Amino acid sequence: MDHNINVIKWPAQSPDLNSIENLLVDKKIRTEHPEKFKNSAELFETIEVAWNSIPRETIA
Known about the structure:
- This protein is 52% helix and 0% strand.
- The protein is mostly helical and 60 residues long.
- The protein has one domain.
- The chain is flat.
- It starts with 19 loop residues before the first helix and ends with a helix.
- InterPro entries: RNaseH_sf.
- One of its GO terms (molecular function) is nucleic acid binding.
């Protein structure tokens, strides 16, 4: 049944499409920085620091 939903076809187990990295960064930011950010630059810097603190072995 077509419900007018566009579907992207890709492998269900593709390692290149693993979104867990995004979840790790999000969790790290929310637990270490529960306060609101004053501006987008502050948010971006926090995301960058959180991302760079994740060991490469975890991401690869």
